[in-house]
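Per your request, structure below.
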C-alpha cells in the first residue's frame, strides 16, 4: 500500500486552485493498481454565486411617470444565502434611490426576497409604489429618487435563467405590474408562482421548484488514469460534501475506501481536479489543503491486507 500526499504545493498556479498535479519521482508502471481517497483537509471556500456561473444577475423595473426604468442587480461573487441577497437588494435600492423614507425614518423598499420555511420555498413580496398624490403625509423621497409612477403600481421583478435556479423560480419569471390594483390572479396552484394579494396591494409569490441556493454543495474529485466504464465521466472517484459553514475546515476520512481501478501504463504524474455537480471546474478560494490518496495492488484487495 502506498500513500500519495497532495497539497498547496501541487496546485496549478492559474488562480483557480482546483487542479493539483502530483509528479512521481520517476516514471512508474501502473498495472493491477487501485486508488482511493483516504483523507481530505480543506476549507469551505468555494462560492455559490459567480459571474462565471452566470447566476449573479436579475433585474427590477421602477416606473417614473409612465416610463419604466430597468435596474440590473449584479451580485458580487460570493457565498450568499437568501437573507444576504435581500439585504444586498436593499443596498442597491439606496444606491438607485428606488425607495421611500417613512415618517418613522425607516425605508420602504419596493420588494423583498425571503425564505418561507413552512413551504420549503423562496418568497417574493412586491409592494405598491404610490404616485405623488397618494404619497402618505410625512413620507419623503431620497434626493436621488428618479420619480414616482403616474399611478400606484408594483415593481416588476425579473428572474432570468441561472439566477432563477438559486431562488427556485421558472427561468424568465416576471412579477405583475399591478397598475392601480387592476391585475387579477387565478387561484394559486402548484405550477404557478402566485400565492396571494392583500388589501394593501402587496403581492406574494412562491418558488415552484426546490431552490438551489448552493448549486455546488458537493465537490466531485476527478482523477486522471482511472478506468471506470460505468461512470460518466469515467474519472470521478469521490464526492465531498460541504457540511461546515463558510470558511471552516472540512476534514474527512472515509470509513471505507472506494477503490478505483487505474488504467494500465507508464506514467509520470497524476492530475486531480475539483468539479461541480454540473461537471464544471470549481474555483477554490483557499489554497490551503491536503489530500491523501492511497494506492494498492490487486492482490492486496483479495488478501484483505
Amino acid at each position: 500500500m502506498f500513500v500519495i500526499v497532495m497539497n498547496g504545493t501541487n496546485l496549478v498556479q492559474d488562480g483557480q486552485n482546483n487542479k493539483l498535479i502530483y509528479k512521481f519521482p520517476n516514471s512508474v508502471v501502473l498495472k493491477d493498481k487501485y486508488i482511493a481517497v483516504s483523507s481530505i483537509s480543506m476549507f469551505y471556500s468555494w462560492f455559490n454565486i459567480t459571474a462565471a456561473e452566470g447566476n449573479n444577475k436579475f433585474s427590477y423595473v421602477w416606473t417614473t411617470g409612465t416610463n419604466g426604468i430597468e435596474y440590473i442587480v449584479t451580485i458580487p461573487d460570493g457565498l450568499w444565502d437568501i437573507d444576504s441577497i435581500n439585504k444586498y437588494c436593499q443596498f442597491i435600492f439606496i444606491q438607485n434611490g428606488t425607495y421611500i423614507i417613512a415618517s418613522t425614518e425607516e425605508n420602504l423598499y419596493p420588494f423583498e426576497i425571503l425564505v418561507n420555511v413552512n413551504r420549503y420555498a423562496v418568497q417574493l413580496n412586491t409592494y405598491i409604489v404610490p404616485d405623488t398624490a397618494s404619497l402618505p403625509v410625512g413620507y419623503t423621497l431620497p434626493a436621488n429618487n428618479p420619480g414616482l409612477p403616474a399611478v400606484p403600481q408594483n415593481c416588476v421583478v425579473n428572474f432570468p435563467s441561472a439566477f432563477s435556479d438559486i431562488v427556485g423560480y421558472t427561468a424568465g419569471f416576471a412579477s405583475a405590474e399591478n397598475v392601480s390594483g387592476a391585475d387579477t390572479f387565478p387561484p394559486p396552484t402548484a405550477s404557478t408562482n402566485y400565492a396571494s394579494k392583500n388589501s394593501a396591494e402587496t403581492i406574494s409569490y412562491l418558488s415552484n421548484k426546490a431552490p438551489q441556493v448552493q448549486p455546488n454543495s458537493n465537490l466531485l474529485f476527478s482523477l486522471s488514469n482511472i478506468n471506470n466504464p460505468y461512470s460518466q465521466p469515467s474519472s470521478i472517484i469521490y464526492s465531498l460534501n460541504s457540511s461546515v459553514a463558510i470558511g471552516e475546515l472540512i476534514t474527512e476520512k472515509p470509513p471505507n475506501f472506494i477503490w478505483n481501478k487505474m488504467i494500465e501504463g507508464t506514467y509520470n504524474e497524476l492530475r486531480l481536479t475539483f468539479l461541480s455537480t454540473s461537471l464544471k471546474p470549481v474555483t477554490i478560494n483557499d489554497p490551503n489543503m491536503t489530500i491523501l490518496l492511497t494506492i494498492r495492488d490487486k492482490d492486496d484487495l483479495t488478501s484483505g491486507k
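The mean pLDDT is 91.

Regards,
D.
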